[in-house]
Amino acid sequence: MYIEELTLTNYRNYDKQKVVFDKKINVIIGENAQGKTNLMEAIYVLAFTKSHRTPRDKELIKWDAEYGKIEGRVLKRNQSIPLEVIFSNKGKKAKFNHIEQKRLSEYIGAMNVVMFAPEDLNLVKGSPQERRKFIDMEIGQTQPVYIYHLGQYQRILKERNALLKDLQRKPNADSTMLKVYTDQLIEHASIILERRFQFLQKLRKWAQPIHQGISRGNEQLNIDYDASIDVSEDVNSEKIRIVYEEHFNHIEQKEIDRGTTLVGPHRDDLIFYVNDKNVQTYGSQGQQRTTALSLKLAEIELIFEEVGEYPILLLDDVLSELDDYRQSHLLNTIQGKVQTFVTTTSIDGIAHETISEAEIFTIHEGQLVEER
Amino acid sequence: MYYPEPISKLVDSFTKLPGIGPKTAVRLAFFVLDMKEDDVLDFAKSLVNAKRELTHCSVCGHITDKDPCRICDDSDRDGSIICVVQDPRDVIAMEKMKDYRGKYHVLHGAISPMDGIGPEDINVPSLIERLKDEEVEELILATNPNVEGEATAMYISRLVKPSGIRITRIAHGLPVGGDLEYADEVTLSKALEGRRDL
């Protein structure tokens, strides 16, 4: 799939901007603070209805405007589909084919996007929360039911934690209600964990050969799911449910003492190993970067496997940070099949042959000009 | 305020109602000024009467003008089945169906530790008392199909199960007259979960 054209109205530092894109590689050149990342963000928002940079939708509206709008045409399965996301004081609307979608879960997935930005290095280096967000976003892109289970899980978790705090203060209170919430939590937790295991198996399958390619065969990547319960990855949600039940029974008193839920998908993590060494703790900067890149490229293949079309790739300020070999490996992988957006401050750091085929835009104070 | 006091008082009263903002309140207040005096008196009376004469039924908790309420008092109804709902409006929805001949129990809310609502804060204790006194064979749990409603249903079921009373939960899934292809994935998977033998 690819974006044919994009129109921004009162979005961030853009007044009104319409661009027609190339279906292969689009390079956007501009000084700092001209709106390069804003443009990448706009494409991301069109896919997910929210920004990767901020949870506050209001920031997306140009500061003096009442509303902000992103419109795009996406070519998917040989059909051109208009998409639209509008932000105002009253909230946001997402339109698919000019029709408003009441549930965001029905809109998300209309367009698949994979973004690789400098902050994605946090995927390896950062907190477990970042890695959970990565898994959840990726599964959610292809499975709307997963988003539902995740939402219910978080809701129940909040209620359960509130109850545990109550029980902490009143030690002799009735614990029937706690058992109810434990049952409900497990129902969704076991499905979430099952889906995460399935996702991880696919991620490994794609990420391992890609990583080997980028590292010229020198590095072997492995990904472990660090679950808060002891369970093997190839079991179904029924089995997972039983393990959760036993575990929760065992730690009930401890949870009451601590006043919070100690086990579940919200406390799990991913661990990356390169040649059997934990990349987060022992990996070099370069290895961490390669790992993050392998994961992102694996994501592209994964989405192709699930959706049947390649997603749109956004490379925000990262191409120039990769060495020549990694750069050309990345560009070879996506060559011709993935519509790619690259932002950079200067064209010099980028391999010559790619540039010759690319559509070049320059950006200045929220004005985009096509160079050729 | 630029309005004479009687009007601004009326406007203030209207703004206390849900869904009514300052502009609508002003419009309603001026409309009242143009109404016939008798109509206004009737309106005022029904407001006061609704508040004064209605109480909650001491048996089921439904709103009523006599205690016990008409449903609890109706000997034609099957007292061996009790349908548990969250809100008096749910009773009215069920009654419109005209198919249900059992009795009700209105909880007036759902359990939510986050909002500080425990089982004792809604009509759960009175339900348990009622099950001890009356000959009940089936309890239908018709709380809303969201996290709070589901938790409340599971809690009641855990409390009542040991007594041997049959406990059922209303089904959720596809709406009647709807098309399968238009159902969202979540509803569809719920409907599949609750499938039954034919």
Automatic annotation (TrEMBL), chain A:
PROSITE patterns per UniProt: RECF_1, RECF_2
Organism: Filobacillus milosensis
Family, similarity comment: Belongs to the RecF family.
GO molecular function terms noted in the UniProt entry: ATP binding; single-stranded DNA binding
GO terms under biological process: DNA replication; DNA synthesis involved in DNA repair; double-strand break repair; SOS response
Protein name, entry field: DNA replication and repair protein RecF
Domain of life: Bacteria
Domain RecF/RecN/SMC N-terminal: 2-346
First-listed, main subcellular location of the protein, grouped into a coarse class: cytoplasm
Lineage of the organism: Bacteria, Bacillati, Bacillota, Bacilli, Bacillales
TrEMBL record, chain B:
Gene3D superfamilies hit by this protein: 3.30.60.80, 3.40.1360.10, 6.10.250.240, RecR Domain 1
InterPro entries registered for this protein in UniProt: DNA_Rcmb_RecR (IPR000093), Rcmb_RecR (IPR023627), Rcmb_RecR_Znf (IPR015967), TOPRIM_dom (IPR006171), TOPRIM_RecR (IPR034137)
All residue ranges annotated as the Toprim domain in the record: 80-175
Zinc finger (C4-type): 57-72
Record SUPFAM superfamilies: Recombination protein RecR
Any GO MF annotation of the entry: DNA binding
GO biological process, one term: DNA repair
Keywords from the UniProt entry: DNA damage, DNA recombination, DNA repair, Metal-binding, Zinc, Zinc-finger
Entries under HAMAP family matching the protein: RecR (MF_00017)
Record PANTHER family: RECOMBINATION PROTEIN RECR
Protein family per UniProt: Belongs to the RecR family.
Free-text function comment from the UniProt entry: May play a role in DNA repair. It seems to be involved in an RecBC-independent recombinational process of DNA repair. It may act with RecF and RecO.
Xref: NCBIfam families: recR (TIGR00615)
Protein's name in the database: Recombination protein RecR
Species per Swiss-Prot/TrEMBL record: Filobacillus milosensis
Upper classification of the organism: Bacteria, Bacillati, Bacillota, Bacilli, Bacillales
